[in-house]
Amino acid sequence: MANSTKDLFVFANLDGQFAPAGQLSLDEEGSNLIASSFAYGLRYLERSNAQEIDPVALTLKNKDEIRGRRLVPPNGLEAFGGIRDAAPDAWGRRVIEARLKVPSNSLPESTYLLEAGSDRIGALDIRSSLADQERPAHETIHNLSYLLDGAQKIEAGLPVSDALARILVAGSGLGGMRPKASVRDDEGILWMAKFPGNNDGPLDIPSIEYATIQLAELAGLNVAKTKLEQVGAKKILLVQRFDRSWNTASGPIEIRHHVVSALTLIACHESESPTKSYMDIADAIRRYCLVKKIKSDIEELYGRMIFNIFVSNDDDHLRNHAFVWDHQLKGWSLSPLYDVMPHAVIASERYQHLGVGPQGKLSTLDNAYAAKERFGLSPKDAMQIIDRIWRVTRQWRVHFETLGISDVQIERIAPAFRHIDAICSSDLRKLSLTSAASDAP
Q1: Cα separation of 410 and 397, whole Å?
Q2: Residue 221 CB contacts under 8 Å (≥ 6 apart), including other chains
Q3: Are strands 322-326 and 17-29 parallel, antiparallel or unpaired?
Q4: 381: helix, coil or strand?
Q5: What's the rounded Cα separation, in Å, for the pair 266 and 418?
Q6: Whose CB has fewer CB within 10 Å in the chain, the N or C terminal residue?
Q7: Which CATH number fits domain 259-439: 2.40.30.20, 2.40.30.10, 3.40.50.720, 1.10.1070.20?
Q8: Are 7 and 25 in contact (CB under 8 A)?
Q9: In three state form, how does the secondary structure of 234-250 look?
Q10: Is there a shared CATH topology between the 139-240 domain and the 259-439 domain?
Q11: Kind and range of the H or E element at 33?
């Protein structure tokens, strides 16, 4: 199959308006992406509010060095992380393939990038020419039943209209496989609607994920705002889009924030994600994120790791950790927590997707505690985080009941939630009790 080069244009949303940021060239062989290059536009580099597409390979820290140059991805990668994060995720690709009536994974990357539309995650848009216009695609929150029906049809391999397909692909990103769509509420706020899947079986995944995110918030973690909606006999989880903020002083003015994944900051291929660790993310935070937020972001990351151990969330891959551009502070910081789903396994020895500590992926508090120095934490600070998370997660049943989760659903997910004695040695348990006693008034 012959190689072809596709030239696309990357637009960045700055202060509510899209501006052409540069030209992206993709070398493709059929559905395989071989190589990429990117050149920032000279006018874009002159803008005082220009935003970098990628903090690793497309940084704007020294504009003179990149002016007029074609840049390539780092570490021999075929794609720029910041642009890869603006591509549709597995669900979005499935919707695009259904709309275009083609087999799975058969399209070139340029087609997936173009078909994702203007309401994709983050602040970027990819267009085939500078003259192309913005392509918004979202639905009102009052039409969730219509969107749920469309998502179920896509999952079942049935056709849907072009207009519905464009709505179902909007906002997909960061590696999610579950059916979803972007919707706006009556105030114009954008939410991600996450639907139940056709193959979920008896587990009410939207309700369980909602309750788990609420539990994480009670444990002191920074989480995305969520709510549950009932549509017929189904529950739908709504997650407020953290890549958008709204200035409501003079009506809801929407500000778009660029988003990149931990996969981008670590600059590796998706297939390498299982070889990486939480400590690698902490190192990337030190290197690329806002100096004033580094300490708090790394402590937050450590807390999320501990929480994931307690609730057996082993889908903690690099695309499920994101970073958001702060327009005021002009830098990157850890996004709110999202995509947290307990895994009801019965194995006594469990593992995370990412490395936890000196014992690799082993999902124990001892392993996590032994890695504290890599997070810049003192023994006392690490133990305080562990203790804080434990005191909330040990009461998960009460919290789930308070949120209206049924007894049947609670019993089905119960194997995911771990007692501290199952993941903590007696020595560490004694240290935890000693630490708690020393902090008592």
Answers
A1: 7
A2: 300, 303, 304, 307, 337
A3: unpaired
A4: helix
A5: 30
A6: C
A7: 1.10.1070.20
A8: yes
A9: EEEEEEECCCEEEECEC
A10: no
A11: strand 32-40
C-alpha to C-alpha distance for 203 and 45, rounded to whole angstroms: 50
8-state DSSP, 324: E
CA atoms within 13 A on the CB side of 212: 29
Q: What is the pTM of this model?
A: 0.95
pLDDT of residue 238: 95
Yes or no: say if 54 and 264 are a contact pair by the CB < 8 Å rule: yes
Neighbours of 106 (CB within 10 A): 11
Task: State residue 40 phi and psi, 5-degree precision.
Answer: -65, 145
For residue 64, report the phi and psi dihedrals to the nearest 5 degrees. Answer: -65, -35
Cα atoms in the 13 Å half-sphere on the side-chain side of 39: 10
Residue ranges per structural domain of the chain: 3-127, 139-240, 259-439
Tens of pLDDT, residue by residue, the chain (441 residues): 668 999 999 999 998 889 999 999 999 999 999 999 999 999 999 999 999 999 999 999 999 999 999 999 999 999 999 999 999 999 999 999 999 999 999 999 999 999 998 888 999 999 999 999 988 777 888 899 999 999 999 999 998 988 888 888 887 777 678 899 989 998 888 999 999 999 899 999 999 999 999 999 999 999 999 999 999 999 999 999 999 987 766 566 788 999 999 999 999 999 999 999 999 999 999 999 999 999 999 999 999 999 999 999 999 999 999 999 998 899 999 999 999 999 999 898 999 999 999 999 999 999 999 999 999 999 999 999 999 999 999 999 999 999 999 999 999 999 999 999 999 999 998 877 666 555 544
Can you list the positions of beta strands (E) in 232-349?
234-240, 244-247, 253-256, 259-261, 322-326, 331-334
Helix, strand, or coil here: 230? strand
Query: Using the 8-state DSSP alphabet, how is residue 79 labeled?
Result: S
DSSP one-letter code for 336? P
Q: Report the C-alpha gap between 182 and 297 in whole angstroms.
A: 27
Q: Give the 3-state secondary structure of residue 425.
A: coil
Q: Which fold has domain 139-240?
A: Phosphorylase Kinase; domain 1 (3.30.200)
The first and second tokens of residue 374, run together, are 């890599």
